[in-house]
Amino acid sequence: VTTVDFYFDYVSPYAYFAWLRIGELCAARGALLRAHPVLFAALLDHWGQRGPAEVPPRRAWVFRDGARYAARHGVPLAWPAAHPFNPLLALRLSLPGPEQHRVIAAIYRAGWARGGDLGSPETLRGALDDAGLDGASRLAAAATPEAKQALRDETDAAIGRGVFGVPTMIAGDELFWGNDRLDDLAAHLDGQDPLDPHREQLREVMARPRAADRRVVR
Amino acid sequence: VTTVDFYFDYVSPYAYFAWLRIGELCAARGALLRAHPVLFAALLDHWGQRGPAEVPPRRAWVFRDGARYAARHGVPLAWPAAHPFNPLLALRLSLPGPEQHRVIAAIYRAGWARGGDLGSPETLRGALDDAGLDGASRLAAAATPEAKQALRDETDAAIGRGVFGVPTMIAGDELFWGNDRLDDLAAHLDGQDPLDPHREQLREVMARPRAADRRVVR
Asked: How confident is residue A215, by pLDDT bands cut at 50, 70 and 90?
């Protein structure tokens, strides 16, 4: 059975959009979906990148682009009440375990579809309770040192696999970055990856010299 | 007449792909295409971002993703002989002026379609000569202080309009980032931008508070 690892953080609208498609995309191909909450801010720190919300015109772009995608695809999009927000509790609630996919769906719905504050424990508990997922006990479990460590471990494991953004999907060893690339993931799972005939040429190209590197000035 | 401003740097494969479509896309809609060479590295410096080539797994992703796009769309893609390369001379050759679009097409073909070194003056002169564009006199003009200043001015003007990456297309005041968004640009030019009914809601959403900001640690 092919496994698809799905790396996400609730701060990203693109991860939300991808979540709405990834389950059916995998199920239709008999692929096993494994969801991995990761702290996007830690990925950015690790790779020395700024996030979209940290570059003003890029933040404005993401809002426009997300709204355009939602309108075009009929996706409910209210945006979380504040953005960016602290996603740590929401992520710890979403670690692998019983009913994980239902938990993630409930949290996404509360924030991105309905405009709740995903940094708020009350919002998160309510979202889980509404879905019959016992918010109180899950919030207690998410506050333990074990849950905190598990999220750090998920994030470190993602970095170890070369994840630099969200959403990222990894099928076998093939990494796909971005909601825009779900169709490429589907083609890959279908054995119709247009890259396959070009992998040898690509290895040769990537082994060529770098002729210029920017002096990083900040 | 609607004007479409196209911001590009030769280092980006996505700007190459967009260049191959943007001329016809604009012409079919009676829009005036204005091409603006900009130094991507200076955009990155200004906004404090790292470029794709500076994050190893993201660099590998861009190569795979670009090869996949080219294979899917039948686009010739040999990659320039070295990458990244110093694009300054190629950009200065591509400033607004007589035959600008033919110059750009010739340089793209030499590097991205045929694998030439776009950091090499000889390659650039040959590419222009082959297209009947008098490489020698154009290279002389590109070496003047005026040309150097003109490229700086183009780059500063792009930053002033909120350009943070390449390719960027601006139609009127509407900014589109990325080759993936040419279809959105086309819809916008056609008066069918799915964002239009949502602009008021978006203004409200963007005015909401930020609830968390990452301490930038490097």
From this structure: low
The model's pLDDT over A67-118, given as tens digits with 9 standing for 90+, comes to 999 999 999 999 999 999 999 999 999 999 999 999 999 999 999 999 999 9
User: Residues near B213 by Cβ (< 8 Å), separated by ≥ 6?
Assistant: A53, A54, A84
The answer to whether the Cβ–Cβ distance between B214 and A51 falls below 8 Å is yes
CA distance A16 to A9: 9
Name the residue among B82, B155, B68 with its Cα closest to residue B112.
Answer: B82
Cα distances from A67 to residues A74, A76, A138, B56, in angstroms, run 10, 10, 32, 31
Distance CA B137, CA B149 (A): 18
Q: Are B211 and A83 in contact (CB under 8 A)?
A: yes
Q: Which residues of B164-203 are buried (b: 16+ CB within 10 A; e: fewer)?
A: bbbbbbbbeeebbbbbbbbebbbbbbeeebbbeebeeebe
Please report residues of B whose CB lies closer than 8 A to that of A79. 205, 208
Coil, strand, or helix at residue B56?
A: helix
Kindly report the number of other CB atoms within 10 A of residue A64's CB atom. Answer: 20
Say if A183 is an interface residue toward chain B (CB within 8 Å): no
> Which residues on A lie below 8 Å from B58 (Cβ)?
47, 164-165, 177
Torsion angle of the four alpha carbons B55, B58, B63, B69, in this order, in degrees rounded to the nearest 10 = -150
Mutate which: A77, A124, A170, A205, vs B, most B CBs within 10 A: A205
